[in-house]
Write a structure and sequence with these properties.
Strand content: 15-25%
Number of helices: 8
Helix content: 55-70%
Strand order of the largest sheet: 6-8-9-11-10
Structural class: alpha+beta
CATH superfamily of the largest domain: Histidine kinase-like ATPase, C-terminal domain
Number of domains: 2
Shape: rod-shaped
Radius of gyration: 39 Å
CATH architecture of the largest domain: 2-Layer Sandwich
Length: about 375
């Protein structure tokens, strides 16, 4: 299952890298195209400037039709003609505002002057100069911003795909979990009922046998487990329950079912509201699952401490062990369905715990702190009301 998780992560990375390469290739191609178009426009402005100079110096022998065709042929590149003092004489292909016209052109000329987008026209006959300031055409500007628009579109598309994929995957996982849980509960139901009947029969025949009592406890425990499975996927039934008692039961159960080399303790501070909304069977499942994981992490030797405290609106439960620890980059991944470091694990325990705490109890569960070869602390936050 861990390999499946790693494969999904690799596929996501490949998808992201592929999208970035497409954007990068598009940006490079577009910038090259824009650069070529910019050079072409500069050449056209050079010709247009020379045609303007010839028009100013025209006499009776000048071919006016040819010059006017060149000047009138510029329908895309914005230009401004000024005198030697940068006072506007004429302009073309610029949409000027009706108000503050002079201020608009003054700022426009200053901007183009800073960009050095101008040609000088020397009028030697009159010993004066004129300047032609030019800007990028609308097409060239669009080419420059196109990669950014494309990147934005791809980014939005990528986010939508990820959200849709995650939502679909989550819904599919929920159906699988619910179906598997209910089928498990159904399959366990018949043999558990038979075992209960057999224990009742054995109690009648062997009234004082302690082994029969212990057997009955284990069968009832199986019944509780089957009941937990049946509740997965159903609307949670939260009832006002005693948190301290619930935690004590879970701790006692785990102490009885673990070796003497494992010590599990419960520290419940005074003044903490004990009666809160709980689904007791499912919440006990979460605590037991965290304790079992801690025992595995400690290789069956060590201490587990449950420390309970409260804030104004919440109750905080810290479960701390002195096991092998969790790498920081795995803090969130361990709650993903299918993620496991165990050879025989399914990777569903912590994902179900997260679902029970966050979806059913409207709380939070996360890794508060972990240090390799030192230990880990899981934190559960439950609302008081």
């Amino acid at each position: 299952m861990n390999k499946v998780y790693q494969t999904n992560q690799i596929m996501k990375i490949i998808f992201v890298v592929g999208a970035m390469l497409i954007v990068l290739a598009s940006t490079i191609f577009t910038n090259r195209l824009a650069g070529k178009l910019s050079i072409e426009e500069q050449k056209k402005i050079e010709i247009w400037a020379e045609a303007t100079r010839q028009l100013i110096l025209a006499d009776e022998t000048t071919d006016m039709n040819f010059i006017l065709n060149i000047i009138e042929g510029n329908t895309t590149i914005p230009v401004i003609i000024t005198d030697n003092n940068d006072q506007m004489i004429d302009y073309r292909n610029i949409k000027a505002p009706e108000k503050n016209n002079e201020e608009f052109f003054r700022k426009k000329i200053a901007t183009l002057k800073n960009r050095k987008n101008r040609f000088e026209i020397n009028l030697k006959e009159s010993n004066t100069k004129q300047y032609i300031y030019y800007d990028d055409s609308l097409l060239l500007k669009q080419l420059y911003i196109f990669p950014y628009i494309q990147f934005g579109v791809i980014f939005v598309f990528f986010i939508i795909v990820i959200l849709a994929f995650s939502s679909s995957k989550r819904a599919e996982q929920n159906k699988v979990w619910v179906g598997l849980s209910k089928e498990t509960a159904h399959q366990l139901g018949t043999p558990i009922s038979s075992l209960l009947a057999w224990t009742e029969l054995l109690k009648i025949r062997y009234e004082d046998d302690k082994l029969i009592t212990d057997m009955e406890k284990d069968v009832n425990r199986l019944k509780v487990i089957a009941d937990r499975f049946s509740k997965i996927g159903s609307k949670p039934d939260l009832k006002k329950s005693d948190l301290k008692e619930t935690l004590s039961n879970a701790v006692n159960y785990m102490n009885n079912r673990s070796s003497n080399k494992v010590e599990i303790s419960l520290n419940f501070n005074e003044g903490i509201p004990s009666i809160i909304p709980l689904n007791v069977p499912l919440f006990e499942w979460v605590i037991e699952n965290l304790c079992k994981n801690a025992i595995d992490a400690m290789n069956g030797i060590g201490k587990i401490a449950l420390n309970v405290k409260n804030t104004e609106n919440d109750i905080i439960i810290d479960i701390t062990d002195n096991g092998k620890g969790i790498e920081r980059n795995m803090y969130k991944a361990i709650f993903s369905p299918g993620f496991t470091t165990k050879e025989r694990g399914w990777g569903l325990g912590l994902s179900l715990a997260k679902r029970i705490i966050e979806e059913y109890h409207k709380g939070k569960i996360f890794v508060k702190h972990s240090e390799i070869n030192v230990g880990t602390t899981f934190r559960i936050i439950l609302p008081v009301n």
